[in-house]
Amino acid sequence: MPFWVRQIATRPRSVYVANNLRYGCTILRYYLDIEQGDLYRALGRYNGSLGRAEYPNAVWGDEALLA
Hints:
mainly alpha; 67% helix; 5 helices
């Protein structure tokens, strides 16, 4: 999303894995702060599906991500 470039205050020169990871982690941290550490709700915000369980359940169910 273009507004994240302004929010994070950097402008990536190109789309690389490192940039994607940095942005994704920064955005998830932002949502974790809003949700006071509630990963389930933060994942819903991250995916734009707050209030719907499909995405948080899919990530939460992947034990490799939580290890």
